[in-house]
Amino acid sequence: MKKISRVLAAVLALLMLLSACYKEPAGDDINGGTPPPPTTAPPANVTPPDEIKDMSTDVVDADLTCTVTLGNWPPDTAPAAELALFEGYRSVMNAQYPNVTIVPNYYSYTLSTYIGMALGGTAPNIFQPPFTDPQLLISQGLVADVTEALRQFGILEKFSPAYVELLGDENGRIYGFPRDPYILGMHINIDLFEQAGLIDDDGLPMYPKTLQELAEYGQIIREKTGKAGLVFPASETFGGWLFTNIAWNFGAVGEFAMQRQEADGKWIVDLTSEPVVAAMEYMRSLRWEYDILNADATTTDWAGGHSALGTGAAAMNFAADDSVDQPTASVGLPVNRFALIPFPAGPGGAYALTGGTCFMFSPDTTHDQAVALMGFLRIIGMLPFLDDDIVAGMRAGAAARRDRGAPVLPPLSAWNDPEFIAKQREIADEYSNVDMRLYNSFFNSFTDGSILLRGEEPVFAQRFYRELTSAIQRIITREDADVMRALERAQEEFQDFLDDEINR
């Protein structure tokens, strides 16, 4: 426990330092801030999808009495159709659980904001952290044990072993469950590919299959359109996060892994191996040789990358399947002018980062509140069950995505339930609003094995990404910057941190 306490103390100290140095960006992104609470209803002329009417209003539990705050409620800036959808879900919840009060409380999770909220009792009952954070939250008692509520709903047996390990403790207790996984690829603005003449005989974009082609195609786009070939968010931790995937594809895996644990348990960071250096030289070339990066890369965050892609300021963006609504529905790019492609291969292999988001619960959440939250999540189709209500809820979600202009795609299921997965795919086909030729390469890449999936770097990922981002910023802002020295500096800083915190 002393080591765990030191870890949390280090995290808190780091967060205090960071908060003094910058203001967190607003918006719904992986490191975004928290906007004002949402409006409680959409505009009067916007109604829930018709599919909501097919959901049962029969009472499920009249005795369950509690109030729950939903951090997964859409923000007030969300499309009206999405707000109407959640109001429809709430009306169904009110009928099925008449003594449960639902309080919308949109919260865009960050570790820095959540720790204080959890300790102060102001965190929403349910929130959505990335897969990098559950074990820290569990170890510090910052989330509620919901094992019995999950058992009551018959969900425990549908967990895959990987998720039990991710979201549980050494005693087999469970503190959350997966919402959805993601696989990193690339988003493409087809208009800019068309303007650059990068369209094949079938009318499809000639997308880059390798990192070298990415540089070359990006250069053509810059020359033909004057726009950035690639938007690269190199602020905060984003740049280092994306760079790790580039480094893997240059060969920074196995014996050249950037993080590894030695036989004595000590963690070692290696950022000066040949593959990592080659990957950083590649980053240099994107800026100084091919000139394909957005000019404001060092201040561009995750939301800014999506905005640049969606508005046509950039042609390509490293992004995943779980954020296809950002450049489309949120920014305005029509779904037929958007494509999702595999992460380009490198000289050392073809890997793609897989991660995701989970549902977790504030530490003061009671068993009754957890049961009520399971009831709501069941209504919106987030639990692996199939009945008329759930299918109607899934259809309503697909209809809302279609209505607000987001691509309706086959989901990457978070559950080990073949029947549930098949139904998800069937509904995606039923409501599809896209030409799947613009997406098939992405989905086929990890089913046919042409892309190998890889999880995030194993220890203190966010701190690690921040050190790499600093190195990237130096390389893309100074033409004469020394790549090896920038990587040595990042390696020294992160190794010192590891030695102080976990290598004792």
What order do the helices and strands come in, and which of them pair?
Layout: H1 2-21, E1 66-70, H2 80-96, E2 100-104, H3 111-120, E3 126-127, H4 134-139, H5 147-152, H6 161-167, E4 176-189, H7 190-195, H8 211-225, E5 228-231, H9 238-249, E6 259-261, E7 267-269, H10 274-288, H11 302-311, E8 314-320, H12 326-330, E9 338-342, E10 351-361, H13 367-379, H14 388-403, H15 418-430, H16 440-447, E11 452-454, H17 461-477, H18 483-501
Parallel strand pairs: 1-2, 5-8, 10-11
Antiparallel strand pairs: 3-10, 4-8, 4-9, 4-10, 6-7
CATH superfamily of the largest domain: Periplasmic binding protein-like II
Number of domains: 2
Instruction: Give the overall average pLDDT.
Output: 89
CATH topology of the largest domain: D-Maltodextrin-Binding Protein, domain 2
What's the helix-strand series? Answer: HEHEHEHHHEHHEHEEHHEHEEHHHHEHH
Chain oligomer state: single chain
Biggest sheet details:
7 strands, mixed
Total strands = 11
Notes on the protein architecture:
Helices cover 43% and strands 12% of the residues. With 504 residues, the protein is α/β, with parallel strands linked by helices. It has 2 domains: 34-182 and 356-447, Periplasmic binding protein-like II (D-Maltodextrin-Binding Protein, domain 2, 3-Layer(aba) Sandwich); 185-354 and 452-501, D-Maltodextrin-Binding Protein, domain 2 (3-Layer(aba) Sandwich). The strands form 3 sheets. Strands 3, 4, 5, 8, 9, 10 and 11 form a 7-stranded mixed β-sheet that branches. A hairpin with a 5-residue loop joins strand 6 and strand 7 (267-269). The radius of gyration is 23 Å and the shape is globular. It starts with a helix and ends with a helix.
